[in-house]
Here is the input.
Amino acid sequence: MHLGNATSANTVTNFLGTSFILCLLGGFVADTFLGRYLTIAIFATIQATGVTVLTISTIVPSLRPPKCTDGTVLPCITSSGKQLTVLYIALYLTALGTGGLKSGVSGFGSDQFDDSDKQERKQMANFFNWFFFFISIGSLAAVTVLVYIEDNLGRQWGYGICVCAIVLGLIVFLSGTRRYRFKKLVGSPLTQIAGVFVAAWKKRNMELPTDLTLLYNVDDIDDGKKKKKKQELPHSNSSGYFLDKAAIKDPKTEGGKTAIVNKWSLSTLTDVEEVKMIIRMLPIWATTIMFWTIYAQMTTFSVSQATTMNRHIGKSFQIPPASLTAFFVGSILLTVPVYDRIIVPVARNLLNNPQGLTPLQRIGVGLVFSIFSMVAAALTEVKRMNAARAHGLTGNPKAEIPLSVFWLVPQFFFVGSGEAFMYIGQLDFFLRECPKGMKTMSTGLFLSTLSLGFFVSSLLVSLVHKVTGDRKPWFANNINQGKLYDFYWLLALLSALNLVVYLFCANWYVYKDKRLAEEGIELEEVETCVH
Here is the structure.
């Protein structure tokens, strides 16, 4: 669409960020209103519609700008308002559909198994293994086969294949309707969090009783609702004093056993403590966002670098620039067995931890890898720019610089290896530390870090582009005349500072099971993370 490097990068990261943040909306709709089955069917249709519009925009000449002439950037005609409108409608319809699908598919799959049955619980573990396996296969096919088709036959063919795949998948999904198990709506944990804050605000002027047993708790729920009772949690003084007021019983309206309880006016002390658990995790949550900001660069500027480098293997085959993201999958496939077979046994002996590394330690390793990736990216960009200057190619953005594209592999490898630690570490941490009654929040917290990471990338690119201006731009439309290496150094510095903050937060954090054990509380159910 001839938008320039900075604008194009932000378009990609805004799209990805929106896709992940809409997972929260999709989860809320599925848990509260539609259920996972209808959510999947409806949002898959929306996704197919978005990709169809995208396909049409690549076929109809009036919906795309004319191709650039060879030589320089100047002859390129930028997209018109109508063309950009169609593009953004297509992208954000796709993002909306993707968000709904991501939030419902894995959960609906787990609904088909009875967790209380040992045989079905084992089958569910196998289901998740195959589920993530086919996701990886799909991702690998997207960045290799589809990218090759788009580069050689045209984008309309790649997008058209995607539409057919989505429609075929939807048909297969609907064909099994009579065999599915459907679970009742349980409501969204976001409603509980909002209810606690609203109730606390309404009672902000009331005094907390010195005797905490006078606060409303699960034991005060009438017998008719006992089947929904939660395990009672002890009161904590470490945070959320204001939130405790949500459990104050107003003697005028909520004093009697038969009084009707309004969840927006009164919450149990256990509900309050569960919200406090979420609040305690927020510093860890916030310091993991930076990793996904680094990750975003691999889908934007690293691809721009690749387009200017020697991508030939042999005399005839040329690697499509976007296919370099396949090194993500390769580094993950390499890192996971190395971790399981080598790192875990060594760490188990050194740290006396049967799991090897704790979730927070895994996250820390992922953050370290993100710093390495940006250092590698900056050094590679310096080398690429020196090669462009040495051969007098800085004025031609389409010229092939005599430097192998495989110089970019280290930055992809470090981010991919870091993702193997970060992804599993985050899921494990949020799943273990989220309250039992708010387990769906674990996925929501995780996906929100991805979303915000992409949005932070867009914000940084916009700020840097505005500050550096047109005189000495870091993100020139001709990448050979920019200073992309300075942006990578900036990200490396920000990542290092973020790591320091994370280490303080991780050292401060006390795991839920240890904290409750000190209170003499044993959890009724221990849930494990499926890797």
The beta strands are 309-310, 312-313, 317-318, 401-404. The chain has three domains: 1-187, 189-273, 276-517. The two ends are 40 Å apart (CA to CA).
